[in-house]
C-alpha cells in the first residue's frame, strides 16, 4: 500500500512506546486514527500528540474478545473503514520456565497472543469485505524468533504470535486478498515494556521471585540502550509501503537467524543471540 494519506489506522497499546510512535507517525502521514489501550491517561496524551486529523480513542483490554469487537465496531462505524491494523499491545514477565505460574502465562498469552488473535477475528473479515488494500502489523519480538533463558513465558507468547502472523499472511495470499501482513520483531526499544507490571490485572498478580527480578534488570538494561520508538515507526511505514513480512529492527538478527538454523539442523541447542 503506497498512499496512507486519508486512510484509517487502528493501533492497540497506543498509550506508550512503540504504539504511541506508530500513532504519531500515522498522523503525520495524514491517516485517521482509532487508538486503544488499557491506560486512559497515556491514551489521552497520545491522542493529543497525534492530533493532526481525526483521532478516536477507546479504552480496550485486548485480552477481552468483546472489548476488541467493540473497538472494531467503533472503528468501522465511525471512521468508515480500516486500512492498517496494528496489534501492538504487549507485556513482559521474566523468570525461569519452572518458576512461572499459571497467572503469568494467562496474562502474557492473554495480551501477547489473544490480543493478536482477537484483533484478527474482529477486524480481518471486515477488512476483506471492504475489498481495499490494507495491512495488518502484529508486534511480535525477537523473542518470537529466538527463545532465550529468563523469558520463556514471553517467548512462548511471542512465538505463537509470530505463527499467527505467518499463517494469516499465507491464508490471505492463498485466497488472493489485497491485505498484507507484517510481523514486527523489535530488539531493544526505549519504551516502558520493563514496567509492564503497572498494567497487570490484580487477579493475575503473583509474588516476585529472585529470577524474575534478575530478568527484569536484564530487560531494563536492553530497553534503556534500545533504539527510539520513532525509528521503529519509520520501519513499519516502510514495511507497509514495501509489503515486507518480516521486520527486524536491528540488523544483527539476520545473522542470528542463520546461526540458529544451522545449529538446529545439526541437532544442537541454539546459542543465545547477541541481543541488541
Ligand atoms: N521495547 C522493546 O524493547 C520491545 C522489544 C520487542 C517487542 N516489543 C513489543 O512491542 C510492543 C509494544 O510494547 P512497548 O515496548 O511499546 O512497551 P510499552 O509498555 O511502552 O507499551 C505497551 C502498551 O501496551 C498497553 N497494554 C498492556 N496491556 C494491555 C492490554 N491488556 N490491552 C491493551 N493495551 C495493553 C500498555 O498500557 C502500554 O501502553 C509489545 O507487544 C512488546 O512486547 C517491545
The CATH topology name reads Rossmann fold
Strand content: 5-15%
Please indicate the count of domains. Answer: 1
Work out the helicity level.
40-55%
End-to-end separation: 30 Å
Integer average pLDDT:
96
* Largest sheet entry: 7 strands, parallel
* Heterogens: nicotinamide-adenine-dinucleotide
CATH class: Alpha Beta
List low-pLDDT spans: none
Number of strands: 7
H-E order: EHEHEHEHEHEHHEH
Notes on the structure:
With 276 residues, the protein is an alpha/beta fold. The chain has one domain: Rossmann fold, CATH 3.40.50. 48% of the residues lie in helices and 13% in strands. It has eight helices and seven strands; from the N terminus they run E-H-E-H-E-H-E-H-E-H-E-H-H-E-H. A seven-stranded parallel beta sheet has the order 3-2-1-4-5-6-7, sandwiched between helices. Helix 4 links the parallel strand 4 and strand 5. Helix 1 crosses helix 7. The longest helix has 29 residues. The protein is globular, with a radius of gyration of 18 Å. Bound molecules: nicotinamide-adenine-dinucleotide. The site of nicotinamide-adenine-dinucleotide (NAD) has 32 residues, from helix 1.
Amino acid at each position: 500500500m503506497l498512499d496512507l494519506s486519508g486512510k484509517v489506522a487502528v493501533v492497540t497499546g497506543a498509550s506508550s512506546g512503540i504504539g504511541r510512535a506508530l500513532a504519531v507517525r500515522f498522523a503525520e502521514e495524514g491517516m485517521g486514527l482509532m487508538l486503544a489501550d488499557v491506560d486512559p491517561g497515556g491514551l489521552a496524551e497520545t491522542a493529543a500528540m497525534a492530533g493532526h486529523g481525526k483521532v478516536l480513542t477507546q479504552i480496550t483490554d485486548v485480552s477481552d474478545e468483546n472489548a476488541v469487537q467493540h473497538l472494531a465496531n467503533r472503528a468501522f462505524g465511525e471512521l468508515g473503514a480500516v486500512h492498517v491494523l496494528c496489534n501492538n499491545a504487549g507485556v513482559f514477565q521474566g523468570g525461569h520456565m519452572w518458576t512461572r505460574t499459571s497467572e503469568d502465562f494467562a496474562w502474557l498469552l492473554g495480551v501477547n497472543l489473544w490480543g493478536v488473535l482477537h484483533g484478527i477475528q474482529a477486524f480481518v473479515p471486515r477488512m476483506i469485505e471492504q475489498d481495499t488494500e490494507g495491512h495488518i502489523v502484529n508486534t511480535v519480538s525477537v523473542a518470537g524468533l529466538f527463545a532465550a533463558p529468563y523469558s520463556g513465558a514471553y517467548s512462548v507468547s511471542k512465538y505463537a504470535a509470530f505463527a499467527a502472523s505467518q499463517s494469516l499472511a499465507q491464508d490471505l495470499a492463498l485466497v488472493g486478498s489485497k491485505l498484507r501482513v507484517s510481523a514486527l520483531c523489535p530488539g531493544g526499544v526505549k519504551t516502558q515494556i520493563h514496567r509492564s507490571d503497572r498494567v497487570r490485572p490484580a487477579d493475575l498478580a503473583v509474588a516476585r521471585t529472585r529470577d524474575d527480578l534478575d530478568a527484569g534488570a536484564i530487560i531494563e538494561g536492553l530497553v534503556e540502550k534500545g533504539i527510539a520508538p520513532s525509528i521503529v515507526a519509520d520501519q513499519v511505514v516502510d514495511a507497509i509501503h514495501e509489503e515486507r513480512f518480516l521486520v527486524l529492527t536491528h540488523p544483527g538478527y539476520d545473522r542470528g537467524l542463520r546461526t540458529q538454523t544451522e545449529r538446529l539442523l545439526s541437532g544442537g541447542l541454539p546459542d543465545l543471540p547477541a541481543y541488541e
